[in-house]
Amino acid sequence: MEIQLQTILQPDPEICVEEALYFHRKGEEICFDGYFNLFYIEKWKRYTRLEKLQLSIKTVGYQMLRLYHNRECVDEIKLEEAIHAYIVEFPWEKYTDGVFWFSLVPDENCKMQQISGYYMGVCEKAAHVAIGIDICTYRREEYVLRNLKVLCERVLQNEELQVSKALWGYIIDNGKTLDAYEPLQQYLKAWQERISVIPNKNAGGAGGFTRGMLEVLEDKEERQLTHVVLMDDDAVLEPDLFVRMYGFLCVVKPEWKDIILGGTMLREDKPYLLYACGENWEKGLVISKNRNLDLRKYENSCCDNLTTIKNEKEQYSGWWCCCFSLNVVTEKNLPMPIFIHHDDIEFGLRNRKNGIVFLNGVCIWHRCFEQIPSGSNLYYDIRNDLIDITRQYSEKRASHYIWSFYWKHLAIRVIRNKTEDIIWAIQGAHDYLKGPEWLWRQDAEQLNQKIRNIKETNFVICLEESVKVCVELLVKRKRVIREYKKNMDLYTDKNAWIKYLKR
Fold first, then answer.
1. What pLDDT score was predicted for residue 108?
2. d(CA 168, CA 156)
3. What is the DSSP string of 364-375?
4. Containing H/E element for 32?
5. How far apart are CA 404 and CA 193, in angstroms?
6. Is the pLDDT of residue 235 over 60?
7. What's the number of CA atoms in the CB half-sphere (13 Å) around residue 163?
């Protein structure tokens, strides 16, 4: 059976126009060795049942096709002048790592050059794959319309794509505004059988994405869904990510059937720079080894950090784009009700035993988080990091790490004399110490309004409150750690979430 694995991509004015992300020019030779057109051998060898790798290609105006492994030419095929379709094989059995790619040499006597096609995998039997796309949004109508058009026009209505019949969209409308947005409603009429808009309580990203998970689980049997992919509403999509997800999941080995398929985030302001491709987390610190890697350079696009399989059970993926098996997302294994920030971290760490893989081209472009002022989000960063530390370490180690994490973060704000930040950091610790039941019982939107409207006070009072919260953390943290470890799972199942979202 032949499975589409990757489309041959070229610059697209509606998606990305950085030529070097797709190919490089070497004299008259056009080398499709850019980030989007490389094929990562080691990952596909380890996780999939691929028996052969082919290049299925249509060309006009080219005289020569060359296949490469890394920088070595492994085959050369003379091409016809007219439009012609070719299927050529890479030496799949010969190599275990590195990258495959190809190049074309134009025919100087032909004024027009065209190319289209795919990397195709050959496998004895493909697994059934059907994916629910879970998009959480809050009053971003134009972003939703933009991405819906990309999804529908580039993927769902393109019957040449094998994935086109295997996707269903679930747009979770936390702001309850999409019903009144006429341009979107007109568009949805044509896709109402494949795209659903679900009004939801504003329970933040955690509540929105979890509502989407619940909707997918509800439709699992009827639509024979196997996976759910979480995606931000304001990301710029590379539509071929669905082709690549689907192709990989169709041929994944049985022992890796529940592997998580993470998404790479590229910077929207500098679309050739990588922001995140698998992140590590330790004691409250997010570690991204690949940040600001320039993917226009061939050597960066196939560097060890991107092609290796070494970190498969250490990393997690942000929810700007992340695909989970429905054997992982279940009625008993849902995110925590923490509104925003670190919901993806905790859920990713909780499930990393299943392994995670990042494939080139399974990516989105997003606004760089460093450009977004933290403001009241500092409250969530502090509170939720304390919860994450509690969940990830033994009671003894968590007790130590919580204390060292908190006083350092608080001290930085005190030294900088940032009274607003001090207040948010204090409130974050106070609310962490109230335990998991308090967290679950809150009206998340009302709590968020309260946090956003905390009144600034003078520095002396901030110092006094800082001392109080540190003493409170020292005295109560061991008891609270035990409470989170014992009871937090009560609030990550279907019944708890239904009650939470209906309150």
1. 86
2. 9
3. EEE--GGGS--T
4. strand 29-32
5. 52
6. yes
7. 26
Distance from C-alpha of 92 to C-alpha of 95, rounded to nearest angstrom:
6
pLDDT of 497 higher than 60? yes
- Can you tell me the distance from the alpha carbon of 380 to that of 336, in angstroms, rounded to the nearest whole number? 13
Residues 6+ apart with CB under 8 A from 455: none
Q: Is the dihedral of CA 213, 218, 220, 222 positive or negative?
A: negative
Residue 95 has, within 13 A of its CA and on its CB side, a CA count of 20
- Please report how many Cα atoms fall inside a 13 Å half-sphere around the Cα of residue 135, on the Cβ side: 28
Per the structure block, which two tokens stand in for 414?
């005190």
What digits encode the pLDDT tens for the residues 429-438? 999 999 999 9
Write the DSSP assignment of 81-127 as a string of letters.
SS-EEEEEE--GGG-SSSEEEEEEEE-TT-S--EEEEEEEEE-S-PP
Q: Give the tens place of pLDDT for each residue, 244-288.
A: 999 999 999 999 999 999 999 999 999 999 999 999 999 999 998
Strand duo 321-325 + 260-267: pairing:
antiparallel
Token pair 């399989």 in the structure block, residue:
309
Beta bridge partners of 230: 134, 322
C-alpha dihedral (74, 75, 81, 83), degrees to nearest 10: -90
- Which spans in 262-369 are helix H? 298-301, 304-307, 343-350
What is the rounded distance in angstroms from the CA atom of residue 81 to the CA atom of residue 63? 7
**Alpha carbon separation from 286 to 283, 300, 315 (Å, rounded):** 9, 22, 10
Q: What is the pLDDT of residues 296-324, one digit of tens each?
A: 999 999 999 999 898 899 999 999 999 99
Does residue 394 register a pLDDT over 60? yes
Residue 496 CB contacts under 8 Å (≥ 6 apart), including other chains: 337, 440, 490
Q: pLDDT tens digits, residue range 41-97?
A: 999 999 999 999 999 999 999 999 999 999 999 999 999 877 789 999 999 999 999
Neighbour-count burial of 422, counting CB atoms closer than 10 A to its CB (0-12 exposed, 13-18 middle, 19+ buried)? buried
